[in-house]
Amino acid sequence: MNLANKITIARIFLVPIIMIFLLIKLDLEPIHFDDFSITYNQIVAALIFIIAASTDGLDGYIARKNKIVTNLGKLLDPLADKVLVAAVLISLVEMDKLDAWIAVVIICREFAVTGLRQIALLENKVIAASKWGKWKTAVQITMIIALMLNNFPFTFIDIRFDLFASWVAAIITVYSGIDYFVKNKNLIPIA
To answer: What gap in Å lies between CA 23 and CA 143, rounded to an integer?
Structure first.
């Protein structure tokens, strides 16, 4: 169990903590600015999510830099990413902050690409993250933070950035999924 794997496992353990802060109502007065309102729970959940999302790049960097890449890390890292994003998306749907269809599109794409990567592993091949996959991750994280923070600070200038980011995330997610399958169509057996 090396440092990179410990960071990945910590990301998985942060998921239920984020969900607790998002879904359990504390008996505290929300913070109000004019028409804007946000709970302390949401702020704490967003901060923990930002920390968890930040560890995604950190664990891989540490593993590659120190030449401690392991099979466990190769398995856990993408799993931790999917669990983090899926859990928060489902929580945001429960909170009525995200349309369920967007969450379903994102989660289905993640399962599909993970399945494709598993097929590649059976063929002793590795599907590296594409530039579209990296963009997808960045846009999804941005969307999630905007939704968790009730569109802060964009609400003060009357811009629905959270809605815009949700649509962009859905579009880039679908495009990046198609991109993975087109570039790796040789892995898909056609009967």
So the answer is: 18
pLDDT value, residue 118: 84
Tokens of 43: 């702020």
**What pTM, to 2 d.p., does this model score?**
0.91
Dist CA 162 CA 151 (whole Å): 5
At 98, which helix (H) or strand (E)? none
Q: Whole-angstrom Cα distance, residue 63 to residue 98? A: 34
Contacts with 123 (C-beta within 8 Å, 6 or more apart), sequence order: 187
Domains of the chain: 3-187 (1.20.120.1760)
The C-alpha atoms of residue 179 and residue 191 are separated, in whole angstroms, by: 22
Any idea what the Cα angle at residue 70 is, between residues 187 and 75, rounded to 5°?
Answer: 50
Q: Report the pLDDT averaged over residues 19-48.
A: 90
Q: What is the distance between the alpha carbons of residues 34 and 32, in angstroms, rounded to a whole number?
A: 6
Range list of β-strands (E), the chain: 31-33, 36-38
Q: Is 144 helix (H, G, I), strand (E, B) or coil?
A: helix
Burial code (b: 16+ CB inside 10 Å, e: under 16) for 53-65 equals bebbeebbebbee
Closest CA to 17 of 39, 37, 46, 59: 46
Two tokens at 157?
């200038």
Question: Among 158, 35, 159, 144, which residue's Cα sits nearest to residue 93?
Answer: 144
Position 92 scores a pLDDT of 97
What type of residue is 91? Answer: S
